Amino acid sequence: MVHARVVPWSSPEELVELKEWFYGDKFSEKSSDVDMRIRAIQRVKCYQSKGSQYLPHVIDSTGQITSAVLLDEERLMRGKDSMFAVRLSYAMALIRFVNGLLDPTQRSQFAIPLHTLAQRVGLSSWFVDLRHWGTHERELPSIDMLRLASKEALEWLWEHYWNDDELQEDSSNEEESEGNDGLIAEIKRLVQMGTEMEEMIIEYKWIWEDGSKNLISSTNFGVEDKKTQTTSPHERIHDYIGDCRDHWRRTTEKKLFVEVAFEKGRRALLDLFMAKLAGFDLEMLQWVAESYRKQTIGGKSTLLRRKYATWTELKKKYLKNYVSNLNLNNLAANWNQWEAVLEKYPSFLTLWICNSILTRLQDHKGQSMARKKRKKRRQTDNFIELESKITAVIERLSKRFNNSDSKLYDLPPSQDSTNLRTVQPSTTSTNDILNDLAGLRQRLTEPKTTKTHQIKLWNSHPNWQPRPFGIL
Fold first, then answer.
1. pLDDT value of residue 378
2. Where are the domains of the chain?
3. What is the rounded distance in angstroms from the CA atom of residue 387 to the CA atom of residue 438?
4. Rounded distance between C-alpha atoms, residue 182 and residue 121, angstroms
5. What does the buried/exposed string (b/e) look like for 253-265 if buried means 16 or more CB atoms within 10 Å of the residue's CB?
C-alpha cells in the first residue's frame, strides 16, 4: 500500500517539464535556443514557498547546484577575475547536497562513517572528502575541482532521480541484489555485535527484559567530556537496542533479518530481539513454522534442521524458551495476525506452540489468583478471550496432528518419497495408507542400525607416514 503524501507540484507532467528545463541538453529533440535553467530555478523557489518540507532534497539540490553553475557562467562571460563568490556558492551547494543525502541515513545510535553511507546510496566517496574540505579546511577547494564535482553531482541526480523511469530492468535487478547484499551485511554486523555483548546482555537483563522501565541514570546529567569516558554497559545496551530498532523499522526484508538472527544469534540475543523489536516474535513464528513444514512435508533440508537435528533438541533448546518469552499482552492484542500464521502453516509444531501458550495462560491466571492482585478488567477479559480462541485452534489442529507426528521431523530427507508424492496422484485406499506407515517405521529404524555399525574407534596407525593431498 502506497501512502499519499503532499507535493508542491500540481501534476506529474509539471515535474517532467521541470526535468526537461534542468537537463535540456539530454532532450535534444525538444530543446530550443532558450536556456530554461533559470526558469527551472524560479519554479523550485516557488515550490519552496509552499513549504520546504514538501520539496524533495534532490530537487532542491538540483536547483542550488544549477544556480552555482549559472553564476560561474555569468562571471566567465563578464570576465571578472575574482572567483571567490563562485567557489563559495559551489562549495555550499555541494555541502548541502552531500549532507541532505547522507544525514537521513545516519539514524543509528552508533556513528556510521560517511564513506559507508555514501557507498550505500551509490555516491562516490570523494564527495565526502570534498564536503570535509569545504567545511573544515582553511581554504576552499579549487574552482576546477568544484566545477568537476558539480557536473558529477548533476549527473548523479539525473541517474538516481530524474531518469528513474528510464532505467533498464537489468540495472534495477543488479541494484536490488546489491541492496540485499548490503542488507545481509548490516544484519550480520548487528548480530555479531550482539554476540560480542552477550555476557553484558545477560548480566544487565533487567535493562531490556519485558516489562522493565527505562530508568533515568545519573550519567544523563554528567558534564564531563565523553571522549575521556568509557561508555557504561547501560548506555551500550541502550545504544545497541536503538540501532537494532532503527534497522528493524526501516527494513522491508524482515524474513531475512529473522533468518540471519536465527542462524548467527544466540539465545540471549533472540530474547532481546523478542522483547524490544515490535513484531519480531510473530515473524519468528512464521519463519520457524514455514521451515518446519518444508522439512516434514517437502522433505527438504532446512536451516532449522541443521541447527536442531531432532525434535527433542528443537523443543528443549528453542521452542520452550520462545514460548516463555512471549508477551501475552501483545499476543492478545494481535491475535488475528497470529491466527492467520497458524492457519497458513498447520503442523504439529504449531499445535505444540498453541498448547504451550495455553498452559502458560492458565499458569498466569492461577498465579494472579494466588497472589490476590487486582487486575484490570479489560486485561482479564482479553486473556479469557485469548484462551478461548487458542483452545479453538488447538481443537482444529488436534484433529490432524498428534504426538506421533513429531517423529517426522527426525526423519532424514528422502528424495524418493518426495518424487512419489509429486508424481503420483493421491489415493485413499487402506492398502496405500498401511504401506506408507510401514515405510515410515522402516525409515525410523534404519538410521539407528546403520549408526551402530558405523561406529569406529580412532586409534593411532602403527606405520603412518604423512602424504600430500590427492596421493594415496
1. 54
2. 12-166, 421-453
3. 38
4. 11
5. ebeebbbbbbeeb
Within 10 angstroms of residue 90's Cβ, the number of other Cβ atoms is 28
Cβ atoms of 181 and 122 within 8 Å: the answer is: no
* Mean predicted confidence (pLDDT) in 55-60: 91
Can you tell me the mean pLDDT for 424-441? 58
pLDDT at 253 exceeding the cut of 70: yes
44 pLDDT band (50/70/90 cuts)? very high
Q: Which helix (H) or strand (E) holds 127?
A: helix 126-136
pTM across the whole model: 0.48
CA distance 391 to 333: 17
182 vs 178: CA distance, rounded Å: 6
For 1, counting Cβ atoms within 10 Å of its Cβ (0-12 exposed, 13-18 middle, 19+ buried), the class is: exposed
What pLDDT, on the 0 to 100 scale, is given for residue 435?
Answer: 67
pLDDT band at 88 (very low <50, low <70, confident <90, very high): very high
Q: CA dist 378 to 143, 332, 381, 390, Å?
A: 69, 11, 5, 18
Is the pLDDT at 148 greater than 60? The verdict is yes
Rounded Cα distance between 86 and 75, Å, is 8
Q: What is the mean pLDDT of residues 281-302?
A: 85
Judge contact between 305 and 409, C-beta under 8 A: yes
Count CB atoms within 10 A of the CB of residue 445: 10
Angle at 465 between CA 460 and CA 470, to 5 degrees: 110
The residue assigned the cell 576546477 is 144
Mean pLDDT of 457-472: 74
The DSSP line for 279-338 is: THHHHHHHHHHHHHHHHHTS----HHHHH--SHHHHIIIIIHHHHHT--HHHHHHTHHHH
The Cα 336–Cα 223 span in angstroms is: 49
Using only C-alpha atoms, what is the Rg of the chain?
31
